[in-house]
Design brief:
Layout (H helix, E strand, L loop, with lengths): L20 H21 L9 H31 L4 H30 L2 H8 L2 H4 L2 H11 L5 H13 L1 H13 L3 E4 L5 E4 L1 H7 L5 H17 L1 H22 L6 H6 L4 H12 L3 H14 L6 H4 L12 H15 L1 H12 L3 E2 L11 E5 L4 E5 L6 H18 L13 H21 L4 H36 L6 H15 L11 H4 L13 H20 L3 H10 L6 H9 L6 H21 L2
Parallel strand pairs: 3-5
Antiparallel strand pairs: 1-2, 4-5
Helix pairs in contact: 1-2, 1-3, 2-3, 3-7, 7-8, 8-11, 13-26, 14-26, 16-17, 16-19, 18-19, 19-20, 19-23, 20-21, 20-23, 20-26, 23-26
Amino acid sequence: MFSSLSQRWQLEMFPGGSSSSFFKAYMTRLRTELDQLTAILTIERMSVDDEHGWHKLMGSIQFITGALREADSFVSCLNAQDQNDEEAQRLTGVVKSLYADYASALNYWEDWFLAMDDREWEQLCQYDFIQSIKFPLQERRELAKEKLPSVMETLINELAVDGYHGWGDHYNTVVRHIVVAYEDDQGIKHKWSAGQAANQLHHADRSVRENIFSLWENAWAEQADHCADTLNHLAGFRLGVYKRRGWGSALKEPLAINRMDEKTLSTMWQVIESNKRPFTDYFRRKAKLLGVERLSWHDVDAPLEGEQTSYSFEEAAQLIVEQFRMFSEDLADFTTSAFQNGWIEAEDRPGKRPGGFCTSFPMSKETRIFMTYAGTASNVSTLAHELGHAYHQHVMNDLPHLAQDYAMNVAETASTFAELIVADATVRAAKSDKERISLLEDKIQRSVAFFMNIHARFLFESEFYRKREEGLVSVKQLNELMVRAQKEAYCDELAEYHPHFWAAKLHFYLTDVPFYNFPYTFGYLFSAGLYAQSIAEGPDFAKKYIALLRDTGIMTVEQLATKHLGIDLTKPDFWQAAVDITLEDVTLFLKLTE
């Protein structure tokens, strides 16, 4: 099916890259539309009886919501593909400034909501053009009750551009200067960017992996002061805002963003913590297979020696599409289109940002996927993961823009579900125990990531915010907090940890969302439960799956689970059943490697 695929994406929605005249004109129109909206919202409140006026107003808000996402996605792609693109960096500031102005305008809109009595509110919600977005509007109204007066929230938004978001941009500058110099056994000298070096941490040769990990740690240690400044000021800004709003917990905002009850979160972690023992058995077995007494950090995600399979980009595409088709023709056809239309940036080259992501262009009704592909099984999983994100957006493209704003944790559900489809199918199709062990091992690595690596991030960030309330947290303290969190999350099973993980992990520095960790684990287990149900129900489940995805922007996760699965996420039963599915892989792995 795929003979020769480009590994560079096409950004033809705005031809010309960071110098695009089309994008400049687009931004000019967006600024004009935003100024007109602000002028309307800062005058006398519109009567709820003015149906035509409200319809026009909502049209403008819907347009700006989608257009801003389009612009933000474009500049994000530009910055990711070339961290040395100075014009793209400048455009990032322009977009962030627009976002701040839009958020300020919506603060005045929220004042309108707060001024309405319940009778007026219900009258407004009866209009046809409001029905499909009633949930996010109600959500905004309730949150506005807990925020500061609009003039103060507007000031926060304005200061955040060069303060809060500025520090996030600064981290990207720091990463751009990371260079890992390595000389291989052939005497060839390499100078890797952070993204390229991260791929090498999974090298099949342990001595190479060990050497690269040491260089990796040293590279981040050299930039640790800059990273610590960034992390401290990001957290300080957040905590300052929370204090002014009277919010007592650093988890309040991320839980609200994820439309998730704290009881659901605590129940999920409690179930995971009580089921870690089989994974420690897996660690010990893997250590034995690698010929070491205990695994080090760089061994956890490493392939078993002699078992590594390399996939060309075309082979990965073929594998993913074939397995997706076993679940859904629509998912497979969409994925084929994404590969063939140049929606994926995968080329392994210097200058790219580390990590992977999927971003949406809601006005163009397209998505783009970013990663650095090196042919590993882990890369194939990442590719499937990001395609799951893309499909999630695809099935929502016809909905109002405000109804497309789904939470992080359910976003990770779609992506992880796509991973499971590929991973489980390949394990079932294995032609030998040796192949099955290799595939199982790769699959178990993802469980370890969500139950232990992500848990370590959550533990670290929770403790870091507590410490930050007392003052600045030093590099030494950050390293200590990180190692302590890793030891707890990994049941102290490793011989060596990653002290500077807090510096190397981009997710700690994202200014869109705090605590970008637990949504991954939620998504993994929620998708495991969905996948089990898909097996039980067969082909008909694909329609139910699409219906669930389409509701993700208009429900809490608890409501979503009740409506589509008939389950209560605040109770341990669902989580235990989902964890049990992952434990089956560990049991089979231990049996096959006896």
